Amino acid sequence: MAQYNFGAGALWGTPTTDAFGAIIAVPTPQLLATTQDVSIDISGDIKTLYGQNQFPVAAGRGKGKISGKVKYGQFNGAVLNALYFGQTMTSALLADYADVTGSVIPATPFTITPTPPSTGAWSVDLGVRNAQGNPMTRVASAPTTGQYSVTAGAYLFATADTGQTVFISYQYTATSTIAKTSLVQNIAMGSAPTFRCDFFNQLGGNGLSLTLYSCISSKLSIATKIDDFLIPELDFEAFADSAGRVMSWGTAQ
Length: 253
Fold this sequence. Notes:
By secondary structure, this protein is mainly beta. The protein has one helix at residues 77-85; strands spanning 10-17, 30-31, 35-49, 58-72, 89-97, 103-104, 111-112, 121-130, 137-138, 147-151, 154-157, 165-182, 194-203, 206-221, 233-238, 247-251.
């Protein structure tokens, strides 16, 4: 019976070292869930030897290369950090609030203090727009018409702008046991996390298993569309691990 395979399959990345080269003693395998498509390309340079005639008299394989690409639908911070950034990650919420409701500037003291979602704490101003959608100008203090100042999340407006509707956007943080956040430091070139890649695809019990023992990611792409889901894309290349292993594979037939 012939073997056929169908669908995108499943791909796991198991971190082996962090961005600084430290071995991860007890790694957590990361499933790149809701896989959309996977491609793994195995190639090698072919060197040919010519004599006096038109076609080569010998050929040999030179440098080899294994590269992969996966697109997946379930966005997960642990996956991003383990397979691409490899730096310190904490459980906390870091988010932006883009105001689409608006608030009316009150009379004395002409101040609006937004309440961040999730009992969060205001951290960074991302601008204020008036009812016409035009940006207001931020100043250090004593705002005049069309201006505002902000201190610790309290937005002060001009007396003359009382009664106007404004839209305040900002960044905030909040305590969370689920959300992930990380500050990516500017580290030395050559430093990057490595991981083991396991891919499986099957149809009717006939499977294809492929393991790449040591991989490094070359690109993380995060592209959005106005009418579609965010589909992250991770590109990577494989190389030999400390035991000289590059790849293992297995098929049902």
